[in-house]
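Lab notebook page, bench 4
Experiment: in silico fold of construct C2
Operator: M.H.
Input chain length: 252 residues
Purpose: comparison with the prior construct
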Amino acid sequence: MIVWREKFLAFALHFLVTLVLAAGAAALIFLIWFPDPFQNMLGGWRLFLLVTGCDLALGPLMSLVVYNSKKPRRLLVLDYTIIGTVQIVALAYGIFVMSSSRPVYIVFAKDQFEVVLASDIADKDLQAAKDPYRSRPWWQPRLIAAKGPTDPKERQELLFASFEGRDMQFQPRYYEPYESQLEQVRSHAKPIAQLLARHPESSSLVADAAKRLHLAEDSLRWLDVRHGHGFWLALIDAQTARPLAYLPIDAG
């Protein structure tokens, strides 16, 4: 006779343990790898739910199927060893996939910001870079700038590399501190009035952001932010030329 009460108790206990593991993974992913607003910008939430949803559903459901208090202890230990191993391997693989998709650099290049993921940078390009750009940051994306070469031969090499998808923002050899390009940022940053004239529907988003930042709208500027799924917009402090907020607005 099936004792459903015992089975549902095993299901609930397994679900709680899995939930704790998922919460730990969420802390790593959303506090460190995908800080606000990158979880929304890059679809981190959807990927995380896909990864953990399988673990949260399948593991406890397998408990519901296999648990039987009348089974020999040896068989129960074997069942849960197999289930736990499968769950941990699946979760570890999901975390690995998300680590490869994490944003590592926010690069000002030419006239806009580029969100560069860990998987966008080839190992050979890291080896050609100078410190401190010879690694992929693990603790939140780093704000930097990229400046193209002036040597004609290097410019030609960069042109050919761009045909392979290795544009300047994906090659750390061209990285330099963000502060070195502040004047370039200021020269390309556009006034908020221009944005509102072209996209009046974005006025509430801009007003809310200015209120959170405790700044007047006329003290802000904006630049496009290109990422793998399209464009957002960065609000720039007119004085410091640093991005203060990112908004889900495609101003193109």
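Observations: The chain is about 50% helix and 15% strand. The chain has a mean pLDDT of 88.
Next step: discuss at group meeting.
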